[in-house]
Task: structure prediction
Amino acid sequence: MPYTPSDLTRTTLAVLFIGGLIAASFWILRPFLGAIVWATMIVVPTWPIMLRVQARLRNRRGYAVAVMTLGLLLVLVVPLTLAIGTVVENADVIVGWAKSLAYFNLPPPPEWVGNLPVVGARVAQLWEQAAASGMQELAAKAAPYAGNVAKWFAAQMGSAGLVLVQFLLTVVIAGILYATGEHAAVEMRRFGRRLAGERGEDAVRLAGQAIRGVALGVVVTALAQSLLGGIGLAISGVPFAALLTGLMLFLCIAQVGPTLVLAPAVVWLYWSGETAWGTVLLIFAIVAGTIDNFLRPLLIRMGADLPLLLIFAGVIGGLISFGLIGIFVGPVVLAVAYTLLQAWMDDAHEAGVAAIPAPPPAIEQDNPPAGGVPK
Result:
């Protein structure tokens, strides 16, 4: 039956109204979207832990939610508060140290630098060039880049108070999701089925697996690397170890690694004459920098079997496009798209195989004629 003009107008107005209602809802929830995304990324991979805690507490959901919420407070809010306190207390020291770098004279490289295999001669040459040019020239060359990095980092992180409030809101929403997790999962599956049938419900499950894989592979690995590096910094007596550990965690989540923090610290210890502690920190740096080669693939495959290149592109692309939240959103979106594409191609392959007609059965002859098989 063809559409009449009144039916077309009514359908158009209904679509516009629904679209406007959805846009208005997102606009109202916009201040909470970041915390909702963070809380979802935390609750989905830690849900099995919450169930085990609930079983230990005689299946009392309220107690389990309280334990998990307290754990999130200790993991998220307390380290951030300590890092902020460290920066505030040592602000004058940090500013004075940064100003003194402009007047620091770099001495010639030690003999052992040139004796290093493969890279020794090149490192010694660069060191001599830096010592000859002076720190002021290097600071002048690096100033524009440092300013851009500082502005970008400030824009991403925002003020310390807003980040702290965002983390507190994330913990509150995570507690709500812990309390009503089963109902939320059922509603999401219902929405997926209503939107795209069985394939939509599968997409919801794949999103959960991708979130768990990213959280296990990226975040847990980053925590392990930054924890090892932080222990090494604290044992070796490097100043601002807590602040450097937080920076390492950010770099590890962004798939850069802890080397950018640990390598200068090792050089600084050797430079200060602390050869023994420099060697200790070097061992920690090697372990922390290489542990992700086997830990990350193992953890990612516990959640979802995803290519590491896909995770890397999702983390970096999401970070550039959406900021810190994109670290988790980017890999999840790419993982769901990749898995759905694979499922679609598998379905097409199975349909093609099923469409190939089977060969006709061979005709059996009880008494073949003399002279062999007839032509």
